[in-house]
Amino acid sequence: MTVRKQIHLAAHVPGTDDTVRSDPRSGSPAEFASFAHLARTAERGLFDFLLVEEGLRLPEHKGRIHDLDVVGRPETLTVLSALAAVTERLGLAAAACTAFHEPYELARRLATLDHLSGGRAAWNAVTSPDARTAENFRRLAHPDPAGPPEAPDCAGTVRDPLARAAEFVQVARELWDSWSPEGTPRPFAYRGRHFDIAGEFTVPRAPQGHPVVIGSADSPQDRELAASAADVVLTRHGTPEESRAVYGDVKGRLAAYGRAPQDLRIMPGVSVVLGDTAAEAQERAATARRERISPQNAIVALERIWGVDLSAYDPDGPLPDIDPDPGSTLVRGRARAAELLAVAEMWRTLSREKGLSIRQTVIEASPRQSFVGTPQAVADELDELVRTDAVDGFVLLPHPTPGGLDEFVDRVVPLLQERGTFRTEYTGTTLRSHLGLPEPVWKG
Predict the structure, then answer these.
(1) What is the pLDDT of residues 123-162, one digit of tens each?
(2) Closest Cα partner for 95 from 112, 113, 76?
(3) 8-275+370-435 falls under which CATH superfamily?
(4) Where do runs of H (alpha helix) occur along 160-309?
C-alpha cells in the first residue's frame, strides 16, 4: 500500500488588521473570544498550530492611526498562554522580532508557554525590523566606542538584523539546554558579537526539548539561517515552479548542517475562497477584494505610492496625473524613486486600458486570493502541491477573522482526510509530534 505524503496545516492571525470591519462576521482583534474561536476551529480541524503575529505598532497614515485599520493588538505570548487553557493539542506559535527582545527574556517566556501548554509552543523568529516600529523601542547607540558595531542606533533599529537573529536563536537554544532532561540546572555564559550574558536560567527544560523555531525564506540569507536553525519555514505563495525552486533550495542546504529533509517543514501563507461552483467562488473572491478596498482605503493606498495628499481626489474619479514624490514621509522607507514610478505607471496603464477609477484600479491591482474554487478543486490543488514537493503544507489566513476558517475546516479538511493525505486524529501531544519533527538532542 502506497503511503501518501501528509499535508501540514496551520492558521495565521496577522499583526495588523486583515479583516473587514463592516463585515458582520468580523470579530474584535482585541477580544479573547476572537482568538479562542479561531484556535478552537483550528484544533477541530486538527491543524498543527496557530501563529499569532506580534503587532508592535498600530497602522497609521499621515501621522494618525487609520480608523479603518486595527485599533488594538494584545501582547502575543499572553494571548497564547490563555489559549493553552482552552485547547488541548493545537500548537501555539508566537511571532517575536529578534530586534526588539533579549534572548533571556524571550527564551524564558517561550519555555514557560511550552510548559503551560504541555509541549505546544513555537517561535517565529522575525528578523526584519522596520523603522516605524523601532521608534517604539528608541534607545541610544552603544556608549562604548569600542563596542560592537551592530549596537542599535538612535532609532532603535539593528544594523545587521540577520546576524543578530542567528545569534539570538543560538543563545536561546543554549538557555533551553542549560537544564538537563532530568531537571538539573547549570549556569550559562555566552559572549558573542551581539550578546554578552551569564547567569542561571529559571525554567526547566521544555516538554518538547526546545519550542519549535519558525523561520522565513525571503532571501538567500534567510534560507541559510532557516536551514541551520529552523524547524518550519514560512514562504510566500507563488507558482508551482517557483515553490518547487524555493523548496529545493532550502531543503538542499540542510545537509551542510547535518540535517535531513524531513527535519524541516516548508509552509507558504495562503488564502482560500470557496464556493459551490467555480463561478460562485470567483464572485465571492471579487466581493472580498471590493470590501477590503473602501473609498477611504483606496485614497490611502494611492497616497502611499504617490507620496502626496490626495484627500481632495474622488475615489470614483481618475488617477492623478502627477508623478510620485519618493522623498515624501508618506512613503518613507517603502521604495526607491524608480520603484514608485514603475508602480504608478503600471496603475495608470491598468486604469487607462480598463477604464477604471481610483478605487477600481486599487481593487484590480490588489493581490488575489491564493486558492479560489469548489472544496474539491481546492483540495486537489493543495494535495498536488504537497505531493510534487512544492511545499509540505500551508498556513491559512482566514477571512473574515475569526470565522473565516470554519468553512475550510468543514468542507475541505474532510476531503483531504478521505484521500488519506491529512490526519483523522492527533496521534501525539506536542507540536513536534504533529509536525513529525525529531526532538532536539540535549547538549550536556
Answers:
(1) 999 986 566 677 777 654 433 434 444 444 333 445 688 8
(2) 76
(3) Luciferase-like domain (3.20.20.30)
(4) 161-176, 220-229, 240-252, 278-292, 295-306
